[in-house]
Design brief:
The protein has about 290 residues and is of the alpha/beta class. It folds into two domains: about 150 residues, NAD(P)-binding Rossmann-like Domain (Rossmann fold); about 90 residues, Fusion Protein Consisting Of Minor Coat Protein, Glycine Rich Linker, Tola, And A His Tag, Chain: A, Domain 2 (2-Layer Sandwich), CATH 3.30.1150.10. Helices cover about 40% and strands about 20% of the residues. The strands form two sheets. Strands 3-2-1-4-5-6-7 form a seven-stranded mixed beta sheet, sandwiched between helices. Strands 9-8-10 form a three-stranded antiparallel beta sheet, covered by helices on one side. The radius of gyration is 37 Å and the shape is rod-shaped. The two termini are about 65 Å apart.
Length: about 290
């Protein structure tokens, strides 16, 4: 959402930081070109909350027409005494047609509220007021704060709340999706680590068995045929049964493997007990020796 904030005092700057941190496109107007130049160059206000940098989504301008043209929603964050002067200096044309007043107080001479002064100059505008037990420094820091937006019933406040609720719902959905993706990544990493540990265990088993296969038998095999054996184990690693599932085509080699499996009992156990399998499929090729 695009938002123009007119007034770069403590409250205007704090609101710019808060809205920018929430992902909004904020243009902060100051009547002092030196302030806007410092914000653009240093990403901090030269006098207000200097320890808190302004988010990347916040820009600054000293041009009031540019500020008004940035968004149809303008937050008025100047003191009550400056309201009339601000609106008298506004150009006749400008995109802003929704004004949110943040000033607390009334005009001494007329006893008018700030929302009423806005409507004097922009009678067709939607106007709402922001108020609450908030402090600019706390809002800038991101401290928990409470505030109320109200209008005369025109729906502007309701629209602001709806936009805020929509953004919060989107943020929750994005957070939930991010959490789901992180869980998927963690599950894949855990599965990959488990597969590596299982492969390492079976590699130790095959290495022990290959050590008991006579070298002469292996050398007499032509080519590199594969033999597959199903081996049943006790939790201690002792071999219960050996069954050849696939022959290499070389009877002497197949029989040498079977004898080597039985001779290698007990077979190595996995480092992690949860990886133990009672039934193993072991594959052998002469060139793997």
């Amino acid at each position: 959402m695009k938002v123009a904030i007119l007034g770069a005092g403590s409250w205007g700057t704090a609101l710019a930081i808060h809205l920018g941190r929430a992902g909004h496109d904020v243009l902060l107007w100051s009547r002092d070109p030196a302030v806007t130049a410092h914000i653009q160059a240093k990403r901090t206000h030269p006098r207000r909350m200097r320890e808190t940098p302004l988010p990347a989504g916040v820009r600054a301008t000293a041009s009031l027409p540019e500020g008004l043209a940035h968004s149809e929603t303008a937050v008025i964050a100047v003191p009550c005494a400056s309201f009339r002067a601000l609106f008298e200096s506004m150009p006749e044309r400008g995109l802003a047609r929704r004004f949110l007043s943040t000033a607390k107080g009334i005009e001494p001479d007329t006893l008018r509220r700030m929302s009423e002064i806005i409507l004097e100059y922009r009678p067709a505008a939607s106007v709402a007021a922001l108020s609450g037990p908030t402090f600019a420094e706390g809002v800038a820091r991101g401290d928990p704060s409470a505030a109320v937006v109200a209008d005369a019933g025109g729906g502007f406040a309701r629209d602001l709340q709806a936009e805020r609720q929509m953004r919060e719902d989107l943020a929750r959905e994005q957070a939930a999706e991010q959490e789901r993706q992180m869980k998927e990544v963690a599950a894949r990493q855990q599965l990959a680590a488990r597969d590596r540990a299982l492969a390492a265990w079976q590699g130790r088993i095959r290495a022990k068995i290959r050590g008991n296969i006579p070298t002469q038998v292996v050398q007499e095999v032509t080519g590199n045929p594969e033999a597959i054996f199903d081996v049943a184990l006790l939790p201690t690693g002792e071999v219960l049964t050996v069954r050849m599932r696939k022959s290499s085509g070389n009877r002497a080699y197949d029989e040498a493997i079977e004898r080597a499996i039985l001779k290698s009992s007990p077979l190595p156990r996995p480092d992690q007990p949860s990886l133990f399998r009672r039934e193993l499929e072991l594959k052998f090729r002469p060139l793997d020796q």
